[in-house]
Every structure is written in structure tokens, then in C-alpha cells.
Design a protein that fits this description.
The complex is a heterodimer. By secondary structure, chain A is α+β, with helices and mostly antiparallel strands. Chain A is built from nine helices and 20 strands. Chain B is mainly α.
């Protein structure tokens, strides 16, 4: 129910600038995920939107209204904290209704609201327990319910699932996705987990070093990463990078490395500038298919070094000359360590990056 | 499971400690029911005919009847007890209110000289009260006065009576003020360590939930540092209740506290041991009640479950 716009947002701690002019627009009802490695400024950005960090320069607009001078309480947003931040001296109902009680809403209304959100997150039986008597997942739900009860248009999540164990995290992620369908709010979600980002987001914003690297839908970012960082950050196992040179031979273009030579598809080759020579080739493990009879110019010969069995799939860590390459393979494929296998590269799976700027070509 | 055999010396040590702790109280309790003759005679030991005469003497101004053995009620225990209560409770309350706010500011706000202030508070504590006595006595009597000729001074004079200028010396406020000043450093010091433990994200969460700075302090921080408040309250109350030196110099006939009253039973002619013991027993009751009440607030793990540990 709110449109958020960040305009040249800058954060400085003393003389150190940690955010360098963040420009971002989040449409109404959008689930935006800020993702990046630790220290990239994603949490700082979120806390600036919440009002917990001051804005050094730039402005935050909600529905066209500047809010960076307002106190957190006047911004009308709800936030779920990484460590839950439940009030230990209040029971679950007290926690959920805290914001409503501060607003001096009538009692019956508060009770009805508490009951309603408790049902949404499945806490009806625990309303009179103290947070200390709840499990990690239940505490997470209380934190969620507390934010839901506020009825605010903007919902901020600061790595809400990072404290849960792997199984619970998957479950809560699914519940969040379900909740997302019914709750019509503008949500901003910070995480360092690219799987959370991919599964939940309408729009992913990848941040690194205080800059936005790229933003767009998960599919867009996965298929057309803007630079080497984004390409390497999204996707699991991560993309393989091989240094190579562009070689033009008649009307065909190749990328040639120390121990491979791949043909660049024509439509892609057409977009490359004639001066480009030094490139990095990026290929996702999922774009490499085991195929013994593939032709030379569309295949890599990989020497298997380590095989990680993870169930239906095995992840093979291989050597391609001096470079490391990760591939995925069906587990039943008979292979031996040290063996050299041929993998065909899907033509649309070849990503090229400029070696000096690391931008996508 | 077999218990390990303890060293007999350990039990001897325990017995000695118990004797040292409980002995004086037992002695005081027993002697408060004896006549002075029996106490000084020292022959009766634990075998004597108990009497409540000492308590009657001590409480003569609050009893509904006139004790037979007294011609004149010299001891105003009731008045002194009320003075003690007022002074101890008000100074405890003031110390806690100022102390929590100061401690909160020292922990949470960044300002110039914060560390210095934090450390200085404790060094103030190291000054012995006896050192304060002379300057405070002088200030309270001569400097912190309101001229009786002024409007305010005249009004106080007319309302409460008396002669001369209105001074801090001899008033409840004067004693309360010095007790607050004496106890504040230590209270700030202990409360700081409690406030540090309140997770910052709790306060941030409350701010996002719509709480202003004061609501954050009173609704989130204060309930969570209750154990610290209780400990500080016990500490300040007991000091204020038992303090003798400063109270003896700064109080007058109408504002003297119970410890001063007890000493009044000693003169160059006679030491009324029985009455002293009885008053001492009565003096011990309020701190015991206060401590029992306050210590129930000391529950460990108040912040358990707030954040992921």
C-alpha cells in the first residue's frame, strides 16, 4: 500500500562511506529482496528505511513523501528483526499487541486483532506464554505476528530466518511465501541467502560494497547477470569462471582458453565490440551436460578431482587445465576419479564478461 | 552415589561462621528481654525471667497505655521511626530514579566525556562519609539557607515555625540529599551493568512499534532491569537506614533517626543496655521486611527468550 523510493541514499560513519548513493524504487505491493554478502550495506539500507540509522545524505520517499527526518514510530512501518527482539517480560499476546496498545486502540479491537494474527501464524494456543517458553520457530512466528498486527503498509525483514536451523528455515520460507500471497503489503527483505532471495522475491536487488550491482526479477538476474559478481553470487553451485581470449575466425567467434576453445553463438557474437579480446567466460554447472560425443567447439574436457554425492545429483569438482570447474551429474552415471569426461556447453549458457571491468558483454 | 567425605575442618569453619553471623543477633534478642541488672550481672545467661519492659520503654510514645515503670516518656521512638522511614524511603526512591536515568544515558548515549563521567562516579564513592561531614555540615548550616526576610523563606518560616533563616541542616531534605549523593555512584555503577545486557534490538523494535524514547525506557528497559533495581534498592535502603555519622550531625531534635535515638540512651551516668537492645531489634525489622520484599524481584534470566542467544 505504499511506494518507496530511495534517492541517492548515502551513509557515512565518520569519514567512511558505506553506502554510495543508493537509487531504488519499490512499487506498491512488491516483495523486494536486498541480497549480498555481509558488509555490503543491505542491512544498513533497511535500517535507514526503518529510521534506526540516520541518513547522511539523500532521501527516502514513501508515496512521494520524504520520511528521512521522521522518528521510526512516525514512519508507520513494521519490522521483523534477525534476533526476533521479543519483549521477554510480556507474553505472546502482549508482544503482538504492544504497538496497538501504544496507539491506544480500544481493547476489544486489540483482542480481535491479536486473535486474528495469531491464527494466521498458528500461535493461538501459545498466547499466554512468555517468549522464554517458546521454541525458535515459534519465537520467529511471534515476531512475524507482531509485525502483522500493526497493519502498516510496509513490512521490513532483517534476515528473519538466519537464526533458524536448516529444516525450520525451509519450512518458514515456504510459510512466508504462502503469507506473501494473502498479505498485500510492500515488503523489503534483507538476506545473505541467495535461495531465500530467489524463491521469495518479486524483485532482487544485489548489493556489494555499498553499491547496487543489479536489480530485477529473479529470472532476469539469473539469466542475464549484469556483471561477474551478480553471476557468481546467484545460483548454486555457483557459476564457473574461466579466463579466455576472443578469437575471430572468418565469420565465427570463439573463446579460447588454455585448454578449451568454445564457439560463441552468432547472436551473442554480433553484440561484441570488435576491440574486445580479454574476457572471462562464465558457465553455470547446470549448463554443462555430460555428453561423450559432443563436438570439440561446444564441449569442455574436464578431469574429475572430487565427487560430492548429494543424493540424486553429484557435484563434481573438476579441473579444466589450470582452472577449477564445477559440474552437476546424475548420481548413477558411472565415473571414476581422475577420469577425463566431456561436457557439452549449452550455447545460451555462455556468459561473457570483460576481464578488466567485469561487466557482462 | 556415595557422598564424598568432607573435611571436619570444613564443618568447624561453617559452625564458626554461623556463630559469628547469628551470635550477636541471638545475644541482642535475648538481652532485649532482660532487665539491666540481669544483663550487667552476667550471671543468668540464657536462664532468666523475660520481661517486655525494655520494649515498653522504647515504644512509650506509641503505646496506648502508660507503662508502670516509667514516670516520663523520654524516648520518642515513634517519631524517630517515622523520620527514618521518610528519609530511607525517599532517598532510595530518588537514588533509583536518578540512578537509572543516569545509567541509561551513560550506557546508550554517546556524548563527550562519557567514559570519564562513568569512572568518576565510582571515585566519588571512594570518599569516606567522615570526610564529607565537616564541609557538608558547614554548607547545610551556613550556605544552603533561604533568608527569612525573603518571600519564600518567610512563608516556610510561617508554615513550619522556628527562628532564624531556613537552612538545609536539621531538615529531612538535608539528610536525604546527602544520602542520595552518597549512594548514587554505586547505584549508577550496578545499573549500568544491567542496562548493557538489555539487547539493543529490543529498543529498536519498540521504536519501530511506535514507542517514543520515554516509552522505550519505561515499558521496555525498566521492567527488564527490575533485578538490578531491586538489588540497588536493598543496598541504598540499608545504607540510608543504618547511617549514623551524617545523620547525627545534620538532624535536629525533630528529624533524628532511630540510630541516633539508640545512642541517646547512653550517658556518662548510665548505659541502658536493655533499651538499646530492644530498640536495636525494632530497628532491624524494616530492613528485613524491605529486603524480603525487594529480593523477590531479583529473578535471574529476565531477558531469557528475548533474542536468539
Amino acid at each position: 500500500m505504499a511506494e518507496i523510493r530511495l534517492e541517492k541514499l548515502v551513509k557515512r560513519y565518520g569519514s567512511v562511506e558505506v553506502l554510495h548513493g543508493i537509487e531504488l524504487e519499490m512499487a506498491d505491493n512488491e516483495f523486494t529482496v536486498l541480497v549480498g554478502p555481509s558488509g555490503c550495506g543491505k542491512s544498513t539500507t533497511l535500517r535507514m528505511i526503518a529510521g534506526l540509522e540516520s541518513v547522511s545524505s539523500g532521501e527516502i520517499y514513501v508515496d512521494g513523501r520524504p520520511i528521512s527526518h521522521l522518528d521510526p514510530k512516525d514512519r508507520g512501518l513494521a519490522m521483523v528483526f534477525q534476533d526476533y527482539a521479543l519483549y521477554p517480560h510480556m507474553d505472546v499476546a502482549g508482544n503482538i499487541s504492544f504497538a496497538l496498545r501504544l496507539q491506544k486502540r480500544p481493547k476489544p479491537e486489540i483482542q480481535a486483532k491479536v486473535k486474528e494474527v495469531a491464527e494466521v501464524v498458528g500461535l493461538t494456543d501459545f498466547l499466554h506464554r512468555k517468549p522464554a517458553a517458546l521454541s525458535g520457530g515459534q519465537r520467529q512466528r511471534v515476531a512475524m505476528a507482531r509485525a502483522l498486527a500493526k497493519d502498516s503498509g510496509i513490512f521490513l525483514f532483517d534476515e528473519p530466518l538466519s537464526n533458524l536451523d536448516a529444516k525450520l528455515r525451509g519450512q518458514m520460507r515456504a510459510e512466508l511465501a504462502v503469507m506473501r500471497q494473502t498479505v498485500q503489503k510492500n515488503m523489503i527483505y534483507v538476506t545473505h541467502d541467495q535461495i531465500e532471495a530467489m524463491t521469495l522475491a518479486d524483485r532482487i536487488v544485489v548489493m556489494h560494497g555499498g553499491y547496487i550491482q543489479q536489480q530485477g526479477s529473479p529470472e532476469e538476474l539469473f539469466k542475464r547477470p549484469a556483471n561477474k559478481f551478480v553471476a557468481g553470487f546467484l545460483g548454486s553451485p555457483p557459476m564457473n569462471f574461466l579466463e579466455a581470449e576472443l578469437v575471430r575466425d572468418a565469420d565465427r567467434t570463439f573463446v579460447q582458453g588454455a585448454s578449451f576453445k568454445l564457439e560463441v553463438p552468432e547472436d551473442k557474437a554480433a553484440t561484441l565490440a570488435a576491440t574486445t579480446r580479454q574476457v572471462i567466460v562464465g558457465i553455470r554447472p547446470s549448463d554443462l551436460n555430460f555428453s561423450a560425443d559432443a563436438e570439440d567447439q561446444v564441449a569442455l574436457d574436464l578431469k574429475v578431482r572430487v565427487s560430492e554425492y548429494i543424493g540424486a545429483q553429484s557435484v563434481l569438482l573438476c579441473a579444466c587445465g589450470q582452472d577449477d570447474v564445477t559440474v552437476e551429474l546424475k548420481s548413477e552415471t558411472p565415473i571414476a576419479l581422475g577420469e577425463t569426461l566431456r561436457f557439452a556447453v549449452r550455447p545460451e549458457g555462455i556468459h561473457l564478461f570483460d576481464r578488466s571491468t567485469e561487466r557482462a558483454l | 552415589m556415595q557422598y564424598q567425605r568432607q573435611n571436619p575442618a570444613f564443618f568447624a569453619l561453617l559452625v564458626a561462621l554461623i556463630f559469628m553471623a547469628v551470635g550477636p543477633i541471638v545475644l541482642m534478642f535475648a538481652n532485649s528481654f532482660k532487665l539491666d541488672v540481669d544483663i550487667i550481672g552476667g550471671t543468668t545467661g540464657l536462664l532468666f525471667l523475660p520481661t517486655i519492659q525494655n520494649y515498653e520503654t522504647a515504644l512509650c510514645d506509641v503505646l496506648w497505655y502508660e507503662p508502670e515503670h516509667l514516670d516520663f516518656c523520654a524516648l520518642k521512638f515513634g517519631g524517630a521511626f517515622v523520620n527514618s522511614l521518610i528519609i530511607a524511603l525517599v532517598s532510595t526512591l530518588l537514588t533509583l530514579v536518578i540512578g537509572t536515568m543516569a545509567a541509561y544515558a551513560l550506557v546508550r548515549f554517546r556524548f563527550f566525556g562519557r567514559d570519564t563521567v562513568s569512572l568518576t562516579t565510582l571515585t566519588v564513592r571512594m570518599v569516606p562519609p567522615a570526610v564529607l561531614l565537616v564541609p557538608v555540615f558547614g554548607l547545610w548550616n551556613n550556605e544552603f539557607c533561604i533568608d527569612k526576610a525573603t518571600y519564600v523563606g518567610g512563608w516556610i518560616r510561617d508554615t513550619f515555625g522556628g527562628r532564624g533563616d531556613v537552612c538545609l541542616a536539621g531538615t529531612h531534605s538535608g539528610i536525604i540529599l546527602i544520602y542520595v549523593a552518597m549512594n548514587l555512584p554505586f547505584v549508577i555503577w550496578i545499573l549500568q551493568s544491567f542496562i548493557v545486557q538489555v539487547p539493543r534490538s529490543l529498543e529498536e523494535s519498540a521504536r519501530v512499534d511506535g514507542a517514543g524514547p520515554f516509552q522505550v525506557f519505561f515499558k521496555i528497559v525498566l521492567p527488564l532491569i527490575k533485578p538490578g533495581l531491586a538489588a540497588a534498592a536493598i543496598f541504598t535502603f540499608r545504607i540510608a537506614w543504618n547511617e549514623y555519622l551524617l545523620a547525627s550531625a545534620l538532624s535536629d531534635r525533630n528529624t533524628k533517626t532511630v540510630p541516633i535515638l539508640i545512642v541517646n540512651n547512653m550517658s556518662e551516668f548510665n548505659v541502658e543496655w536493655g533499651v538499646i537492645m530492644a530498640t536495636g531489634m525494632l530497628l532491624a525489622i524494616p530492613p528485613i521486611i524491605f529486603t524480603l520484599f525487594a529480593s523477590r524481584q531479583i529473578i535471574t534470566g529476565m531477558t531469557a527468550g528475548a533474542v536468539k542467544g
